[in-house]
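Long-time lurker, first post. I've been practising inverse folding by hand and with some scripts of my own, and I keep getting stuck on stretches where the structure tokens seem ambiguous. Below is the full token string for one chain I'm working on. Before anyone asks, I'm not after the true native sequence, just a reasonable design that respects the backbone. If someone could post their per-position residues I'd love to compare against what I wrote down in my notebook.
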């Protein structure tokens, strides 16, 4: 039986963000991906120029109605990322809830994109929608530290507080929470950032257990766009293949990104020339060239079980 994903994300003609970042890797791993493009832009907004169109909540509803009329609105997963519009986000929640009524086993993977490093880069009216409507229907969420703090109203200064924040997020709905990046100090030094994961599962005998992991991830000296979208897509895939092993799922997810970025930075530096800073176009992820790493990533970053 095919595993089918409804991915509601942005689309770019050139480059890799949103659906362009998620679809190919998921397809390579055997998933059928049905893409709704929340925006269609020429390229991501980190370039000097960009043009394009934005899908409205009503237009999203029309597309979904088309699927429904043909009775092809059956999904195993829903994947969402960056959204700027409150009514669009609320429509996504309505769609997820309807799909979950049809398939109670549907897994909703949500990257709750709100901001980073202490500032929001979406309108503030999205914050309560994520907190009160989106996170409660999500099964897997991938916030960064700032987003996790915003959603719970609790600051993270030490690892213990991060674990408490993940428990608060579990209480809001999701069984799996991965804080994709944080400002917590790594024992390996300042060239590493800490990611943390927590997965709640119920054993066959009804007892509840929580698996928690920490990862020390080497920092990359460049600004990439679309890595969060790739992370969420790969976490969807590897939690599907390793449903009760968050350690393995996160190791494979992070290792895929490591291989893709390593290849990308090497190519970008080669194109830019010695001593020159690569451009946004040169730093587009080398996704197709990384097909083998996506299918079978060599584990280069280990997770520690806490």
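-- Answer (accepted) --
I ran through it position by position. Result:
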């Amino acid at each position: 039986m095919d595993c089918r994903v409804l991915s509601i994300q942005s689309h770019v003609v050139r480059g890799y963000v949103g659906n362009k970042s998620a679809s190919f890797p998921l397809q390579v791993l055997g998933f059928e991906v049905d893409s709704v493009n929340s925006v269609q832009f020429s390229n991501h907004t980190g370039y000097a120029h960009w043009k394009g169109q934005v899908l409205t909540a009503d237009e999203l509803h029309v597309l979904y109605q088309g699927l429904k009329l043909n009775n092809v609105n059956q999904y195993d997963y829903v994947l969402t990322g960056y959204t700027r519009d409150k009514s669009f986000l609320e429509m996504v929640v309505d769609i997820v809830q309807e799909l979950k009524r049809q398939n109670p086993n549907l897994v909703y993977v949500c990257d709750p994109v709100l901001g980073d490093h202490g500032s929001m880069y979406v309108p503030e009216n999205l914050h309560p929608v994520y907190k009160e409507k989106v996170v409660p229907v999500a099964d897997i969420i991938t916030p960064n530290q700032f987003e996790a703090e915003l959603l719970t109203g609790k600051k993270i200064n030490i690892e213990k507080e991060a674990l408490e924040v993940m428990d608060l997020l579990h209480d809001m709905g999701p069984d799996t929470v991965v804080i994709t990046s944080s400002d917590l100090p790594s024992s390996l030094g300042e060239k590493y950032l800490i990611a943390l994961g927590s997965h709640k599962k119920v054993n066959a005998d009804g007892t509840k257990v929580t698996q928690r992991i920490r990862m020390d991830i080497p920092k990359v000296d460049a600004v990439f766009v679309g890595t969060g979208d790739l992370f969420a897509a790969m976490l969807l895939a590897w939690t599907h293949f390793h449903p009760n092993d968050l350690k393995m799922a996160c190791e494979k997810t992070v290792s895929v990104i490591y291989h893709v970025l390593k290849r990308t930075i090497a190519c970008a530096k080669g194109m830019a020339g010695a001593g020159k800073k690569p451009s946004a176009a040169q730093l587009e992820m080398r996704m197709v060239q990384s097909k083998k790493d996506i299918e079978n990533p060599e584990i280069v970053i280990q997770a520690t079980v806490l």
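A couple of notes from the structure itself: The chain has a mean pLDDT of 96. The CA atoms of residues 43 and 161 lie 38 Å apart. Happy to go over any region you disagree with.
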